[in-house]
Amino acid sequence: MSYQIKPLSCDPARIKGMSEKLLVSHYENNYGGAVNRLSAITAQLAELDFEKTPGFVINGLKREELIASNSMILHEFFFASLGEESTPEGELRGALDREFGSLDRWRAEFSAMVRPRAGGRDGY
């Protein structure tokens, strides 16, 4: 099975807090790479003779298939969630308040997790 890269569902120039260059690069390289990798792994699995292939080879490919699949799915959720700036409402707001104590607390915790990967407070 060959997987296809889904079109970018937002205008990366309109996303506040992340540069267009960063979003396009992440979409093309990270998401696109995961989709292409998953397609390549799936093609390798389709060609295997499962009766003759050692278990460690099958297990390794299946593990990599799972990792690439998860990466593809999570990137699709990420890009699908981007849009105009807004405040969570309804069930999402209730879940954030319940799990983190408040929207501000969630925002602070989420931002703190990103900072080390982004090279500091102004990394994005």
What can you see in these coordinates?
The protein is mostly helical and 124 residues long. It contains four helices and no strands. Helix 1 packs antiparallel against helix 2. The longest helix is centred in the N-terminal third of the chain and has 28 residues, at 20-47. The protein is elongated and about 55 Å long. Residues 120-124 have low confidence and may be disordered.
Short description:
The chain contains 4 helices and no strands.
Structural descriptors:
66% helix, mainly alpha, 4 helices, 124 residues, disordered C terminus, single chain
Percentage of β-strand residues: under 5%
Question: In oligomeric terms, what are we looking at?
Answer: single chain
Q: What count of helical segments does DSSP give?
A: 4
What is the number of beta strands? 0
Q: Estimate the mean pLDDT confidence.
A: 89
The assigned structural class equals mainly alpha
Report, as a whole number of angstroms, the end-to-end distance: 36 Å
Instruction: Classify the helix fraction into a percent range.
Output: 55-70%
Unreliable sequence segments: 120-124
Succession of helices and strands = HHHH
Taking the sheet with the most strands, its summary is: none
What's the layout of helices and strands?
Blueprint: H1 20-47, H2 55-81, H3 90-100, H4 103-118
